[in-house]
Fold:
Amino acid sequence: MDDKKAAILSEIPRLRRYARSLLRDRDSADDLVQDCLERALVRLDNWQTGESPRRWLFTIMHHLFIDQMRKVNRRGEAAMLPLEAGEAQAAPADQVETIASREIMDALQAISPDRRAALVMVAIEGFSYAEAANILGVPAGTLMSRIARGREELRGLLDDTSRRRSIRIVEK
Amino acid sequence: MTRRDFSERDIHMALDGELPGEERMAYDAWLEANPEMKAKSARYVADRAAMRAAFAGVMDEPVPARLRQVVLGEAPAKASALRSRWWLSAAAAVMLAVGGLGGYVAGVDSIARGGGDDQLAEQAIAAHVTYAAEKRHAVEVPASEKDHLQTWLSNRVGLKLVAPDLAAEGFQLVGGRLLPAGEQGKAAMLLYEDAKGERISLFVTADSSATSKGTYTAEGGGPEAVYWLDKGYACAVVGSLPPERLSDVAKSAYGQLVAGISS
Structure:
């Protein structure tokens, strides 16, 4: 196996994590990763020697994600609506999620895809602002405002969830 | 030492490691002097920890074979049309079967195994896997509203649809739901249950052109789909029954659906 393929293989866990935070559902997320890998292999020659495979792969995957989100929006499909927790997306038995994890995953799904991507890229994936701006193809200022708004929005959603939870507890 | 006013923007920069080192002390002092900002910073730190914890497990999951195969060039050609719709509902993109074994239905000489067939079977299996396992939310409209169910699904899918009576095969209608199918299409899913609680589902969508029949099981096992495309209908019966019994159920369902068209 050549070095490029080995380098790509070793990035799969991170790509899966990023995809999962973008799409929530495990199988849909892995489908996105698979599309990304297929496109990457077709374009192996575009990968500059010395360029970080991580940045290259994340850029490819981000383009796929954003392109499809735009298509979905144009068609007016409701794929972006956050699902009611535990209703349409029962997690597979082997996918144990704590309540806290589920709440944060649901909240992430409810913020706009652009903000979600920017926030996750920096807060979970650990990219610098410069790297994340480059991968997402936006100026650094735009990235920063997406991160700030994303965090603010996420906080509000989590507060709403915990407020609803405490109301339910009181009603019992 | 740098002197400047800090703002909320700096909270994000500090959190993300983007605050220049020489400003750090002044920033910390500013935070100490502004309890509101300090609380905000602490909250963002906590939210970030929760985000990281929520997705940390993904890194430890074994990499699915299908992803390794793409990189190693071992992946057999497959219906990428199904996968490339991952952004649609989970139901349309859940189960992904690489390869798959073509089956055989009595009375069929040859089975044309085009992408359309696989796609239909994969979608039907995905829907079955997703919803048949749901005890309380398996259907949108229960069997008690059968007339409404039939009218509603017929209108949405654009096909005359009757819910076959499978009592002779031991199955009672539980109800049905509407699902996405294909690029823009919609599919009806009807769920049935026998006395032991075994469930099968009937997946129906419109397909103008093709005519074929077959059976399909994902490579990794799981429920089997008996499908047929004919008269503008694309149907699949999915379940984990012995093949002969599933085939009988499928024949009965098919006969009633076809009879329903002209009734």
Q: What stands out?
A: Residues 75-95 of chain A have pLDDT under 50 and may be disordered. Residues 1-81 of chain A form a domain with the Rna Polymerase Sigma Factor; Chain: A fold (CATH 1.10.1740.10). Chain A has two domains: 1-81, 95-172. Chain A touches chain B through 54 residues (CB under 8 Å).
